[in-house]
Amino acid sequence: MDTMRKGQRWVLDAFLSVGGLDVLHPDAGALFEQIGYDSTDIKRVFAPVKAGSMLPACWSAAAREIEQRARHWEQRGFASTAKRMYERATLLYARTHYSVLADDPRRTRYLNKVVQSFEKVIELAAHPIERIALPFEGKHLHGILETPAGAASVPCVIMLPGMDMFKEDWHKVIEQRILPRGWAGFSLDGPGQGESLTKGLKMTLDNYDRAISTVIDWLSSHPAIDPSRIVIMGSSMGSWWATRAAAVEPRIAAIAANMSNLGDKYVLLNQAQPSFMAGLMFMTGITDPSVIQDLSRKMLLDDLAPKVKVPYLIVTGENDELTTIDATIDVYDRLQGPKELWIYQHEFHPIGPQSDEWINASLDWLGAALAGRFQHGHEVRTFITKGGEYVDGTGQPTWWNP
């Protein structure tokens, strides 16, 4: 039996050659634009792709061009243009780095390019940005803290990426949507993610829980941060990690679980595109697919969700290809604190067409939670139609009840 699902990759390659990014996640391009990618860069990367094995080279080619443009404008003294180009180069190099799913010198070389490009962003930015390395269980956790100029004791949003994301993905969201609120943002490469993974920190079932506590320890001692107002926005698998942490970490004030992946991982590993199996194996360092399946059977929130008492928002797409609505609602029902569930009709995992809306609305919701607007017993379930109708009630898709 092909337990690693390698035999299915030719199918993914065939669809990539005709469908591009949307084959990986329908409407992901819209989300990418909202978090800082340039649509022209994405189109250029995927235009020549005939197989997944071409992606690292295509990401890299685009990154080199944009970095060259960044250097030109930096030399001219055009700081704003140079900064934007270095932001684009950072994301393109980070995608190249992510695409090398192995402990390989090429991955390290591209991580170095990510760091070099983002150091230029830091140099050219108008607000304080710190690259952080926190000692953690013999390795380091790598993160980025961005704060408003002159910040003192402000709220902080910890941004958790998903399996196929990294901390740099959240820079523009923090800069454009979080800092203007007077808040700080901390984006994390946790165990099994991004820079932390490349430098040897693998994911286990529960070490991400402790990683979040380590980050909160550090943030609580930072003069810019109010330790009583630390919240989490966890996206995709980041929603699962955030929920586990909230069950054991009392200093988390509220959670927004976007593009949520809260149920069992059967769909993710057995029905979704085969790259998720390869990704989880690399993230954990587990080389035996049967052991990965054993781990996935333990990745349940049945007993942990009832321990979550803080305000909790779930945002998901009706047709999320990585989980099921039933599994999401089951976890929602187990939560014991103030809670809301927003389900977007006919949307997939990225909830791409409405990503501008749900990113801002999730941050507004976290702000309302910090302001004490959601008391014990608060519960709202909303089904959001493609036509912009917000149907409060069960939250279930309207076609479930003829």
Description:
This protein has 402 residues and is an alpha/beta fold. It is 46% helix and 16% strand. It is built from 16 helices and ten strands. It has helices at residues 9-19, 21-24, 28-34, 39-46, 55-76, 79-99, 105-124, 171-178, 194-198, 207-220, 237-248, 266-270, 275-284, 289-298, 325-334, 355-370, and strands spanning 129-136, 139-146, 154-160, 184-189, 225-235, 255-258, 312-317, 339-344, 379-384, 390-392. A ten-stranded mixed sheet has the order 1-2-4-3-5-6-7-8-9-10, sandwiched between helices. β1 (129-136) and β2 form a beta hairpin. The protein is globular and about 60 Å long. The N and C termini lie far apart (42 Å).
Helix/strand layout:
Elements: H1 9-19, H2 21-24, H3 28-34, H4 39-46, H5 55-76, H6 79-99, H7 105-124, E1 129-136, E2 139-146, E3 154-160, H8 171-178, E4 184-189, H9 194-198, H10 207-220, E5 225-235, H11 237-248, E6 255-258, H12 266-270, H13 275-284, H14 289-298, E7 312-317, H15 325-334, E8 339-344, H16 355-370, E9 379-384, E10 390-392
Parallel strand pairs: 3-4, 3-5, 5-6, 6-7, 7-8, 8-9
Antiparallel strand pairs: 1-2, 2-4, 9-10
